[in-house]
Specification:
Structural class: mainly beta
Number of strands: 31
Helix content: under 10%
Distance between the termini: 76 Å
Oligomer: single chain
Number of helices: 1
Largest sheet: 17 strands, parallel
Strand content: 35-45%
Length: 340
């Protein structure tokens, strides 16, 4: 009987740098090696369609890429799904059975400007870490989890560069109860889109970038670093860099924003918002550092409806003269700190 390998090396079965689509070969390798780590050595692996892993613990696998291994969408890519769909082959909900906590780590996922990067479609406590996601429409998409829509995913040490489209997103969260830590996101219209709650966001840095002759300029007014459409999310040391609106929220967003850093190096249209609320303000903002520039109509807090029970504690502003609103003072607790 042939001895079963514990660590599957992709290039023993699939040729790297072939210039040909290897998605079917990789899918066969994934489904044929349950409860194994599948390792991709350096090289390029072209995909014309998504590859999917099982969430069922008896069939689950982990995908591990060498630092310079590249999964790249081919020019024939046509799917709306992500290049790598974790848990999509067999949905399942367990944290007790070995194999249920699978992961994707390492390497480069290149959407070639047309594809989404990685999605979590099912399972619980899935990890994505130490990966570089490039040229994608949506970098990471966390869908409804198997546990009452809780995906419980852990995403850390990931950098994302989008494709500069008006609908490009760094991370899109639909499933609840995730933790995102230590991430850099650039060249997207929306850095983080949270349509779920119970999430922890720590040390995230979305950067609004301009390519050539300000390719994203016409979309600047609707650009958002952190677009929160749910509630009970916690933000710790999150940095909005040059987006028109740093943090957007709704009336139901009873979130906590702690030690936010909001920076504009230049002003494009003079309408920048540090915190914008669609409805009444009901969140807590503590120790925010806000740096406005130039002759602007900028606001520390913009609301579409008066009232709410929100609190702003000890904001630090480079100068109150740059702020065109008085709304934030209605919710102010403590004092305004000005370094000038």
């Amino acid at each position: 009987m042939e001895e079963r390998k514990n660590y599957i090396i992709v290039t023993d079965y699939v040729k790297a740098n072939s210039g040909k689509d290897v998605s079917d070969e990789l899918q066969k390798l994934i489904l044929g090696n349950p409860n194994r780590t599948i390792y991709f050595p350096d090289g390029e692996y072209l995909l014309s369609k998504p590859i999917s892993t099982p969430a069922n613990p008896i069939h689950a696998v982990s995908l591990e890429l060498s630092t310079f291994a590249v999964l790249r969408a081919s020019k024939d890519w046509s799917s709306d799904e992500a290049m790598v769909r974790l848990g999509a082959a067999e949905p399942y909900n367990s944290i007790y059975i070995p194999g249920s906590n699978y992961y994707f780590t390492g390497g480069i996922v290149d959407g070639n400007g047309i594809a989404n990067g990685i999605s979590i479609d099912s399972g619980r406590e899935t990890c994505i870490h130490h990966v570089s996601i490039k040229n994608t429409k949506v970098g990471i998409h966390i869908k409804w989890g198997a546990n009452n829509r809780s995906s419980d995913a852990d995403i850390f040490n990931v950098n994302i560069v989008g494709n500069a489209a008006h609908d490009s997103i760094g991370v899109w969260l639909v499933g609840h109860d995730n933790t995102l830590t230590n991430m850099r996101i650039a060249n997207v219209h929306t850095g983080i889109l949270a349509e779920s709650g119970g999430n922890i966001f720590r040390n995230l840095h979305p950067l609004y970038t301009y390519n050539g002759e300000n390719a994203l300029d016409e979309n600047f007014l609707t650009s958002v670093a952190f677009d929160d459409r749910w509630t009970d999310n916690y933000y710790d040391v999150c940095y909005s860099d040059q987006f028109c609106t740093a943090f957007s929220m709704t009336t139901k967003s009873r979130n906590i924003y702690d030690k936010s850093f909001i920076m504009w190096y230049t002003t494009k249209n003079g309408v920048e918002n540090a915190f914008r609320v669609n409805g009444k303000f009901n969140a807590i903002i503590r120790n925010a550092r806000v740096n406005f520039h130039g002759e602007t109509k900028s606001s520390l807090l913009s609301v579409s409806e008066d009232g709410g029970s929100g609190i702003i504690e000890n904001p630090m502003l480079n100068s109150e003269s740059f702020i065109n609103d008085e709304v934030y003072k209605e919710y102010l607790s403590g004092r305004v700190v000005s370094p000038n």
